[in-house]
Amino acid sequence: MQQYKIRISELAEQDLENAGDYIAFELLNPIAAENMVKGIREQINKLEVFPASYELDDDPILAEVGVHKTYYKEYKIFYTIDDNAKEVFIVRILHMLVDSRAWLYRTFGISS
Fold first, then answer.
1. In contact, 76 and 64? CB cutoff 8 Å
2. d(Cα 81, Cα 97) in Å, to the nearest integer?
3. pLDDT at residue 112, rounded to an integer
4. CA 109 to CA 99: how far, in whole Å?
5. Which H helix or E strand runs over 21?
6. pTM exceeding the 0.85 threshold for the entire prediction
7. Phi, psi at residue 38, to the nearest 5°?
8. For residue 93, how far is the Cα from the chain centroid?
9. How many CA atoms lie within 13 A of 43 on its CB side?
10. What is the pairing mode between strands 5-8 and 75-82?
11. R_g over Cα of the chain
């Protein structure tokens, strides 16, 4: 069983940092922030094996470009898979209450 390499976009890293900062500084719960960031990273690491086992995005345009998603608590982790290079590319990490379709369309340069 060959493992996939995980690459994380700058936007996804920023998403994760922003979420952690919000929980730590706005909600004043640094322990929860640390646990959330750790949990998301652990969920991302699970993608090293069988990343295609997680569902494609519900949006047909995003599914057509190969955007998959997995979840950690109230966060969605969006990614693409390059089977030839054996790489998983984490595109965005967004809270479930955010209009992820709009953010992903902008990320991929898709006009709505």
1. no
2. 25
3. 73
4. 16
5. helix 10-21
6. yes
7. -60, -45
8. 4
9. 21
10. unpaired
11. 14
